[in-house]
Amino acid sequence: MLASPHGGLPGALSWSAMLILATALADLYFEGEKGSQKNFLLAVGAVLVFGAILAFWALVSKNRVSASYVLLSLGASGVLFYGFDLLIEHLGVRFPALSAWGRNTLLLYLCHDVLLGVFVLPGLPFWYAQAPAWLVVLESLGLLAVLTAVALAFDRWKFYFSL
Question: What is the pLDDT of residues 37-58, one digit of tens each?
């Protein structure tokens, strides 16, 4: 498991399944009239319930890309998506950082991989694999802050990278 941090070939199939299921959920969300996402909410609820039930047999593991991890992550993402949509579309709340991230997702993904090298390359277990919880939180918040600053800078400069 440690040699293939993203599950190897079975993991690739699991990631692919997650993308296909996410596309199906998006189709449910955008079908029909605006504001009528009953089927989406039912599907997200079902995904969360199935993931929770499956967690008793297949432990939740990102490294193994277990089915329970895929379903719970997908369901949680659906809930977050719906919450942000409610805030933005119905309450008029604006999140400039989210817009900036959305305009340069591929470039930020690549920047994320480069920045991860700061934590992975030194080969110090206490800095990465065996880091205490407080250090993980601090590193995660720092990484998020740097990537958000990069996203906002690119957005200010109107520099967008897409395929």
Answer: 889 999 999 999 999 999 999 8
